Amino acid sequence: MRLVDSHCHVNADRFERDADQVIGAARLAGVERILVPGWNVASSERALDLIERFPWLDAAVGVHPHDADKIDDDGWARIVNEHPQYDGSEFDFKPNDEGGEMRCTMYRKDRSHPTVLTEYMSECRRQSIPWQVTPRRMLRHRAFIQAARITFGFAGIYGEDEARDIIQMGPVQYADPPPPPPEEIDPETGEIKPRTAVQKAKETLRARVKGKAAPPPEQTPPAPEEPPSQASPEPDWPAEPANGEGRHEP
User: Fold this and answer.
1) Is the pLDDT of residue 236 over 70?
2) Residues with Cβ < 8 Å from 23, sequence gap 6 or more?
3) How many CB atoms lie within 10 A of CB 15?
């Protein structure tokens, strides 16, 4: 059995002194990989530092929405620059009638092709003061974040405006599942009867035997027609005379 810890905050402050011992003990216990997620700039940087020293660890870099308003553009750039495979970015702004578009090209050292991502002013512009005062700078920041998400698989990277929208949405509301049909409710206990696939197959078979559900008629394919036999015609031999004339006796 392989052991993988999918969510371990060894980058938290409580492990500042003994993180190496904790990771080593996990390795000796048989843990093959550990995913170390970050939730702000400092924890993301520590996660990236750990995977540099321990190659069998993985980092999930990001910023929680509740902390997104505490980070500026320099903080996002610092997270990306800390990644060991980051190899630079390029920006290209093209104006148009709808406010323009910003293209970010981001490079990785271990990939032959860069990630190219375009953000559009008409889709991203908000009514907040930064978007009204410095719209191109904000659009460049948005393109940089989106390109980093795709290039490095960063999860949880949100800008201040995105974090505010997420908080305003509130908790997720789940729709109630439809009630089960009456035949699946136990009349004595009122609980739903458990039905396995075997039970469903047995009920279907009983229904067919009783004639409630006739099985679909089997379609037998028609037999292929045999072509008419073409017998070779017999030769037209001359008729033998009845009196024996015409015979040639040796």
Assistant:
1) no
2) 10, 34, 50, 54, 57
3) 17
pTM: 0.48
Looking up tokens 């375009």 gives 118
Question: Higher confidence at residue 179 or residue 180?
Answer: 179
Helix (H) or strand (E) holding 147: helix 135-152
CA–CA gap between residue 5 and residue 50 (Å, rounded) = 15
Q: Looking at residue 48, what is its pLDDT?
A: 85
What's phi and psi for 201, nearest 5 deg? -65, -40
3-class secondary structure, 108: strand
pLDDT exceeds cutoff 70 at 239 = no
* Dist. CA 85–CA 41, nearest whole Å: 18
Nearest to 130 by CA among 122, 118, 141, 119: 141
Task: Say how far apart CA 51 and CA 157 lie, in whole Å.
Answer: 19
Distance CA 130, CA 222 (A): 76
Measured CA to CA, the distance from residue 39 to residue 65 in angstroms comes to 9
